[in-house]
Structure formats: C-alpha cells, structure tokens
Design brief:
Distance between the termini: 58 Å
Number of strands: 11
Order of helices and strands: HHEEEEHEEHEEHEEE
Largest sheet: 5 strands, antiparallel
Radius of gyration: 19 Å
Structural class: alpha+beta
Number of helices: 5
Strand order of the largest sheet: 9-6-8-7-11
C-alpha cells in the first residue's frame, strides 16, 4: 500500500470508545440546566436513573443535528430526546457509524420545544436560555495547516485563561478543531434574546482583550448569537478537516451563580440587578 493510501486509512480511524460520557453528561446537565431531566444514563458499570425538578412547565428536548461536510449527497438530519441520559445512550450506540460516514455532530444550544427531524428555527426552540454561548474562530489565513492551527489554538488557550481570571467568570471552553466555543452557565433561566445580546457583547469583549494581549488571529462569530444556533457536541470529531480533530472540553465545568455575574446586566423587571454594559466597551 502506498504512503498516501496508508495516510487515508489512518484518517478514517476514530477512537470513539474513549469518549468520556460522564463529562458529556455533566456538560449537558450544565448548559441545559432547568430544561431537561437526566433520566437513565450509563455510569460506566450500570445504568442509573436520576430525576430532577425542571424549571419549565413544557416539554423540552435535547436535539442533535448531523451535518456531512464531505458528501453533499448525505442529507442533514436531526434527532431529539426528552432526557439527557437517553440522548447519550443513543449517541454511544450510533457514534461510530455516524463518524465513519463523515457526519459532524451538533446540538441545539437552546433546547427545542418539540421533536425535530431537521435543524430547527427560532420558532422550534425555547424562549429562555440557561447559558451564554460564544463561538471564537481562527481567521481564515491561520487555517492553512494543521501545525499552524494547533500553534494558534495553544496560544489562544493561554490568553483565554488570563481573560477568564480578569473577568472573574467561570465558563466551559470546548476546543473545536479551529477555534473555541465558550459557555457561561447561569443558575436561572433568562430571556433568550437577552442572552444573545449578552453573548455578542461578551464575545466582542473577549476578542478585544485577546488583541490587547498580542493575539490577533481570532474573531468572534456574531452570527452564532441567535436562538436556533447549533454548536458541536464535545468529544465528537470535526469532519471538516482531513485529520478530523476531536472537540474537547479544556476548561472546567464549574457551576455559575447569577448573582456573581458582575459584568452582565439582567434587565428583566423581576430581577433587581442593574449592572452596566460599560465593561464591554
């Protein structure tokens, strides 16, 4: 077999058996807090059922969306689950086949209000949010080689650690292959449009702080600040690239207390918090 053939064979190998499902469970419990019960899940030895009180009085769904970036003949589709454990059990059984077929796996950041068979619109998701989400991408000119991407991501991660300390925020950072997705969990639900406003302000602030630290090869994707946004599922593979990097959680899953969010103005009349947006300017 030629070296090219060997490399192609290597690129088709996926070590999905090492997905840390306990971390993935915690991730969805955090970003979808108050929406979905955990339900039955596998803890590595046996199936466990965990029932929590949700903060909504209507059904919400964890919805995965599957996109094939390599084969346009393979149509995108979606699958929805009422419980997080049910979703991860299904994912564990099907991820090998989906990955081998070239699908990248996403999820609706805002839980959907019904079961979907394709990516949803704003009308298909809830009008509340339990986290703030941002997508920080490498600029196109820095995506030319795997080595350059990895070098930029390493530098970007170090600066993100400094920014987190300066802002005093606790967040989840997922390395996606050519950028970062950042989630700031909240301890109560807020209006989804207001969450999008906060995401834009905070995303732009992060990029400004990165530039001040000498890192000018990232950009904030403001188009992701919309309710029906889908982002990559951690520990799945990014099939846009030939080397298929795995999306990894690289910063902690600490829970977040809304009262300590001293940088964000929650303007809903039921909350006596009036904190200036000036910090983002």
């Amino acid at each position: 077999m030629s070296q090219e053939g060997k490399n192609e064979k290597e690129n088709k190998k996926f070590d999905t058996s090492k997905i840390p499902y306990s971390e993935l469970l915690h991730f969805f419990q955090t970003v979808h807090s108050g929406f979905l019960p955990t339900g039955e899940y596998y803890n590595g030895e046996t199936y466990v059922y965990q029932e929590e009180e949700t903060k909504t009085n209507m059904e919400a769904y964890l919805t995965f969306v599957f996109l094939n970036h390599k084969d346009s003949k393979k149509k995108p589709f979606a699958k929805s689950f009422r419980e997080i454990g049910e979703a991860l059990t299904w994912l564990e059984k099907n991820i090998d086949k989906l990955t081998e077929e070239g699908y990248s796996i996403y999820f609706h950041v805002i839980p959907t209000n019904s079961k979907l068979k394709k990516k949803g619109s704003k009308e298909d998701v809830w009008d509340k949010a339990s986290c703030i989400w941002m997508d920080i991408d490498l600029k196109t000119q820095f995506k030319k080689t795997k080595e350059k991407i990895e070098e930029c991501l390493e530098k970007g991660l170090e600066v993100l650690k400094k920014i987190r300390e300066k802002l005093g925020l606790k967040w989840i950072v997922v390395k996606t292959g050519a950028g970062f997705q950042i989630y700031v969990p909240l301890d109560e639900l807020i209006d989804v449009d207001h969450a999008c406003e906060i995401a834009k302000a905070l995303g732009e602030k992060i990029i400004k702080m990165m530039k001040e630290d000498g890192i000018d090869f990232f950009e904030y994707d403001s188009s992701t600040a919309e309710p029906s946004r889908i982002l990559r599922v951690p520990y799945t593979y990014n099939t846009k690239y030939d080397w298929r990097p795995r999306c990894e959680i690289i910063m902690d899953l600490s829970s977040f207390i809304l009262e300590n969010l001293s940088l964000i103005h929650i303007s809903e009349p039921t909350r006596p918090l009036y904190i200036s947006y000036a910090v983002f300017c």
